[in-house]
Amino acid sequence: MKSLLFSIVFACAVSAVSVLAQNPASDAQDRSQLFRSQPGAPSDTPPEETALGYAAPSSNDADLGTQAILKRQDSYKAWTVSFSAPYYWTSNVALARTGEVSDGVFAPLAGISYQPKIWKSLYGELGVAQQLFYYNRYSSFNFASFDTIAGLVYYLPQLNNLTLRLRYDFNRLTSDEFDEFFSNHQLVFMAELPYRVGRAMQVSVGGVVDISVAADHQDPRRKEFDGYVDYQVQLSRSFSVDASARVLLKDYYANDRTDVSEILALTANYRVRDWLSLSAVSTFAWNQSNESVFDYSVANLGGAVSANIKF
Predict the structure, then answer these.
(1) What is the pLDDT of residues 155-202, one digit of tens each?
(2) Can you give the pLDDT at residue 252?
């Protein structure tokens, strides 16, 4: 990181950034999305296909009929405890249109989720997650994001492993002293369709609809419509690369504000153990709004140590 600026320059920069942060709660939602280690909370990663009790797709599926090659029930682990310690450099702390300043961000995440099997390929989903965001120089932007989720996940192996989700998500944003400045009750609908390309590659297309049904502040409250394409390649038993592109429409309840964001992400993962991984992460985002003061672009580069323990 760059050394601290001289005190007078630093004070002026902080003042300028504070002015540019037009909507702190809305900006915090955007920063949380861009920095979040896993989309959703605590994780959107479904159980492995074999753990769900279905064999991986093959060219002989038509001869075998519907896949129902089951493993023992005790092979599926419903509980997941997750920890992640990412550190990023961000080019635009305040997500400002002009006068961007950069900084480092430490964003540790802890979560626990439970996915009990309800019926065949229908699963429940319960979880909590807490992520903290600590800025190196501009500590006035420190905040925390807490999520509680409850929902259902339905896997359809007969339809190319289509995954459908319905989720209630309570999100609470607080200062670094845990004083609440925004809370939101959301209904989230998700669908993802993966396509295998050979044995080591997969392309997934999906969509997310996120509807705020209640919030304690109206200005940052919004509906989100998200479409994405994700490409994964397993280069070796331990090393994989993931690239994704997203287009996100954000329709705010107040002030007739509408934003469109384009987000590109590239992640390289190295699995040290089955439960421990190292990642290099980069995201690039552009936001266009019908209120031009909310236009911005930002680049985030960093790395993370993550642990996922299943039982």
Answers:
(1) 999 999 999 999 999 999 999 888 999 999 999 999 999 999 988 999
(2) 96
Task: Single out the residue of 276, 6, 297 nearest to residue 137, CA to CA.
Answer: 6
Hey, what's the torsion of the CAs at 66, 71, 75, 81, to 10 degrees?
Answer: -10
Strand partners, 180: 174
Rounded distance, CA 303 to CA 84, Å?
10
Both tokens assigned to 199:
């044995």
Distance CA 184, CA 124 (A): 22
Q: Which amino acid is at 80?
A: T
Contact by Cβ (8 Å): 8, 82: no
| Tens digit of each residue's pLDDT (9 = 90 or more) over 36-76 | 644 433 344 445 443 333 333 333 333 333 343 344 445 88
Structure tokens at 14: 């902080």
Q: CB under 8 Å to 8, separation ≥6 — which residues?
A: none
Query: Is residue 2 classed exposed, middle or buried when 0-12, 13-18 and 19+ CB atoms within 10 A define those classes?
Result: exposed
Instruction: Tell me the backbone φ, ψ of residue 279, rounded to 5 degrees.
Output: -135, 145
What the block records as the tokens of 256 is 């007739």
Of 251, 268, 259, the closest CA to residue 297 belongs to 259
**CB-side exposure of 297: number of CA atoms within 13 Å?**
3
DSSP character string of 127-159: EEEEEEEEESS-GGG-EEEEEEEEEEEEEEGGG
- What is the length of the chain? 311
Give the C-alpha separation, 11 to 92, whole Å. 17
Q: Which residue has the tokens 């920095």?
A: 35
Contact criterion met (CB below 8 Å) for 163 and 152: no
Q: Which residues of the chain have pLDDT under 50?
A: 1-22, 37-46, 48-73
Regarding beta strands 180-197 and 162-175, do their DSSP bridges make them parallel or antiparallel, or are they unpaired? antiparallel
- pLDDT of res. 18: 39
pLDDT at 74: 53
DSSP state of 255: T
